Amino acid sequence: MSSAAVPRIKLHHRLEALAARSVLALFRALPPAAASTLGGTLARIIGTRLPVSRVADRNLRLALPALDATERKRIVAGVWENLGRTVGEFPHLGRLRRDTPSGPGWEVRGGEILERQAAEGGPVLFCSAHIGNWEMLPAAVASFGLPFASFYRAAGNPLVDAMIGALRRDAIGVEVPMFAKGQRGARAALAYLLRGGSLGMLVDQKMNDGIEARLFGHPAMTAPALAAMALRLRCPVIPGHVERIGPARLRLVVEPPIPLPDSGDRLADQARLTQNVNDVIERWIREKPESWLWLHRRWPKDLLPNRAST
């Protein structure tokens, strides 16, 4: 291969990767609980001062209007702490053990649902959201014999992207497909399901070309792929998320499959199932608002107040 064919890595990508590698090395050198606490503390201090925190505040005023300014500020700080803890725990996920009596590790609620699915076999869709430590979800589910493929948007920096991919593979313990978001990736994911595979999807972020469903009573453009694939294959849709119950201490919560509508109207069934998934996610968020990533613009701009209120 000629040198002209080798992609050049930009200098700023190398510098970003060096910084990311140094931070991850620091977290890896610490015990899991200490890494979690350090990450959470730093993110809370830095993140709450960033302009994007105003997005979270506006989202909270729209979704949970009964909260006052003090409560919103507490939740936004908690969002940043959860995000920082997730990053701090990332290098340790592959070494966290299930059912440890105390300290770092993870436990499960609803494990019998996964055991039953593993025994029955066949295609299955797992749906979740950016709640708690969502990076633990693939590793935890894989421990039940159900490693799942995922959709993936590559990081802008290819060196950082490679680091993230390596950490995820280390956590899961097996190689699983990663499908690029978009039509080509959706076709490949459907083919994977048709072969009896498992697919996990985080479905809580805005998709401009999705379908309109409601979230906290407001229109929220939502990806329709999960509903479309589930209805085509009539396969289970199993919701689950990972709660944070302490520093590097997590709980996988698995719920029974969401019933699949079967009215004979494909588009209506797709909209109903998409809404049912959003309703599950909203319930999780309401239980612990600071555990969700409120930092993205989930709702149309014209719904969001432009000024902070007290």
Automatic annotation (TrEMBL):
Principal place of residence: membrane
Transmembrane segments: none
Subcellular location: Cell inner membrane
Keywords: Acyltransferase, Cell inner membrane, Cell membrane, Membrane, Transferase
Molecular-function annotations in GO: acyltransferase activity
CDD domains per record: LPLAT_LABLAT-like
A Pfam entry, by short name: Lip_A_acyltrans
PANTHER family: LIPID A BIOSYNTHESIS LAUROYL ACYLTRANSFERASE (PTHR30606), LIPID A BIOSYNTHESIS LAUROYLTRANSFERASE (PTHR30606:SF9)
Protein name from the UniProt record: Lauroyl acyltransferase
